[in-house]
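To close the chapter, one final illustration. This time we ask the reader to focus less on the individual chains and more on the assembly as a whole: which components sit near each other, and how the overall shape emerges from the parts.
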Amino acid sequence: STKAMSSFVDSYKFETLAVSSPKTNVLHIEFNRPEKMNTMTAGMWKEMVECFNKASMDENVRSIVLSGRGKLYTAGLDLVEAASSLAPSGNDVAREAFRMYKFIGLAQESCSAIEKCMKPVITAVHNGCLGGGMDVISACDIRLCDKDAYFSVKEVDVGLAADMGSLQRLPKILGNDSLIRDLCFTGRKMKSDEAKSCGLVSTVYEDKEKMMEGAFELAELIATKSPVAIQSIKVSLNYGRNHSVNSGLEHIRSWNAAMLQTEDIMKSAQALMMKKTPADVKYSKL
Ligand SMILES: CC/C=C\C=C\CC(=O)SCCNC(=O)CCNC(=O)[C@H](O)C(C)(C)COP(=O)(O)OP(=O)(O)OC[C@H]1O[C@@H](n2cnc3c(N)ncnc32)[C@H](O)[C@@H]1OP(=O)(O)O
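The assembled structure is written out below.
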């Protein structure tokens, strides 16, 4: 019911993220620091971890759209906040290194929580996606953008190597090592047409409004499918990315030994035989 749907999303309360549910079983998460170019702070990373972990276990959520409010998707790390957290303190080197180790771990977890989230995450990029934004989108399942979007692995211009996942995940997404090194060594802006042709994004839309319509339509379609099938697909694709074909086959074999016993298969098969679609089937919560 509408009441049940609105009360479920009401429990997602954050300072740096705006959360809504524009369609049944679809969660919309927006970076919500428009006056700060959606720059990333330790506070935002903590909230991203909390939000994606919660959505992962939330039976009301079957797919997620991640986008940014305001002028651009995100300008990456908040350089003002970072100036104090990264400033040399003069303290014992080992203790300082452990403090940084924890700080970087939190930043990494903000992206890993997206990858580990059991629900597919579609991200919709408008205008700029810089630095930490590239780490974020690399951890998402599906990437969309508008015509004005550009992408920059900007860290090199700030004097550091990206450490939240771009260098580890981009090579799994783009089958072009030369291009990845070009982007990472130069920090250059890659425009939407190149992002499409190299496979970073799957669709480019005319403007942000059309992109969000497309993102919600896609999320809604995914949300109508069997949640057992969808979550199993994500788990298996993620596993396969870091393992051999044989290991991946063994993994899905064991996984599906349980999942093939789902009632969803019988419900889906009956619907198909009656010329219906998954959207006509009511799958139980998962
Ligand atoms: C453990 C470490 C983990 C993660 C590390 C991540 C590394 C990175 O993310 S590196 C990338 C860092 N980001 C940048 O270098 C972007 C710098 N900004 C820009 O290039 C531009 O500002 C812009 C985003 C392209 C927008 O340009 P424009 O539309 O012309 O607006 P501006 O006038 O330049 O900016 C408006 C306003 O925003 C402030 N601002 C912009 N970016 C940042 C930022 N990254 N951190 C803090 N503040 C930022 C800018 O200073 C302006 O502020 P005013 O107060 O309005 O002057």
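The first strand starts at residue 17 and ends at 23. The domain at 2-223 is CATH 3.90.226.10 (2-enoyl-CoA Hydratase; Chain A, domain 1). With these observations in hand, you are ready for the problems at the end of the chapter.
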